[in-house]
Amino acid sequence: MAAENKSSIFAAWISLISNIVLTIIKITVGVLFNSQVMLADGVHNAADIAASAASLGSMKISNIPADEDHPYGHGKAEVIASGIVAIILGLAALFIGYEAVSALFEPPHAASVLALAAALVSLVWKQILYVYTIRIGRKANSKGLIATAYDHLADVYASLAAAIGIGLTLLGNYYPIPYASYGDPVAGVLVSILVLKMALSMGKESIDVLMEKNVSEEKIKEYTQVVQGIPQVKRIDRLRAREHGHYILVDIRVAVPGTLTIQEGHDISRQIKTLIMEKDGQVQEVLVHLNPWYENQ
Q1: Is the pLDDT confidence value at 1 over 60?
Q2: Is 202 within 8 Å of 85 (Cβ atoms)?
Q3: Is residue 57 domain-shared with residue 96, that is, in the same domain?
């Protein structure tokens, strides 16, 4: 896990630096060539800097070992950062939408080939970053890095829409395409909708983890099968698990023969914990409660 954490933090640094560079490029091109969608995308990227910084900071905090004040560790720091990223994306989406709609009621601006080139560079760059960060984020189950990856994906959508919008405007200079000159702001509206949808999805996921929603039914079934494979376990009375950032905590109550000794019960508890953690590397702690079971029950 140490190697995966280092890879996650390195990927977060790459994302932060990339967002800074792209923000400078997009805002400069947007201002110089009066491109609404490029300027809005640049402001979105500026918000991404704050999002990347929040994710990076949370990832470092989440790796701090459990202490007396935080006995379950600091894993939820990444979930909080994911929620912050969702809020930033939502605000960015509203800003992009407002600017794009406003531009629809203004005389169309001339498009620039350089603005189109900037959009295409951003599209390719962000797609590479998305694939890179989502792969590492899922491998390490890093909520902060996964949020950063989806932030990159939102930028892919934004850059694609910008490229299409600017491209249509440029084509309108040579071909009689109806309303082509408004391709730039229309693309901005589409971007705002896509980004807002992604922000809502990320926000819901963050709230679910903070509210300690149960893990997926598939994982619960996996843990159940593992425990049922232990001969001494006669019944599973309760099994629940929750995500705590990049790791999972499991609580389980099982019934075992009431005639077993304390030592035998302890050994069964240890076996349950070991088998579940071996089955799922994301599980960091398993709390086992034993209930007595008798033949006539």
Answers
A1: no
A2: yes
A3: yes
pLDDT tens string 159-168:
887 788 778 7
* Domain shared by 252 and 125, yes or no: no
Number of domains in the chain: 2
Q: Do 221 and 196 fall into the same domain? A: no
Q: Rounded to whole angstroms, how far apart are CA atoms 120 and 186?
A: 18
Q: What is the 3-state secondary structure (H, E, C) of the chain?
A: CHHHHHHHHHHHHHHHHHHHHHHHHHHHHHHHCCCHHHHHHHHHHHHHHHHHHHHHHHHHHHCCCCCCCCCCCCCHHHHHHHHHHHHHHHHHHHHHHHHHHHHHCCCCCCCCHHHHHHHHHHHHHHHHHHHHHHHHHHHHCCHHHHHHHHHHHHHHHHHHHHHHHHHHHHHHCCCCCCCHHHHHHHHHHHHHHHHHHHHHHHHHHHHHHHCCCECCHHHHHHHHHHHHCCCCCCEEEEEEEEECCCCEEEEEEEEEECCCCHHHHHHHHHHHHHHHHHHCCCEEEEEEEEEEECCCC
Confidence of residue 179 (pLDDT cuts 50, 70, 90): low
Q: What is the distance in angstroms between the CA of the first residue and the CA of the last residue of the chain?
A: 44
- Residue 32 sits in the same domain as residue 154: yes
Instruction: Name the one residue in this structure whose structure tokens are 């935080």.
Output: 70
Alpha carbon distance 171, 92 (integer Å): 28
Looking at the structure, do residues 38 and 130 belong to the same domain, yes or no? yes
Kindly state whether residues 103 and 159 are assigned to the same domain. Answer: yes
Per-residue confidence band for 2, with pLDDT thresholds at 50, 70 and 90:
low
Residues 169, 95 share a domain: yes
* Residue that is written with structure tokens 């949020």 in the block: 147
Give me the domain span that covers residue 150. 2-210
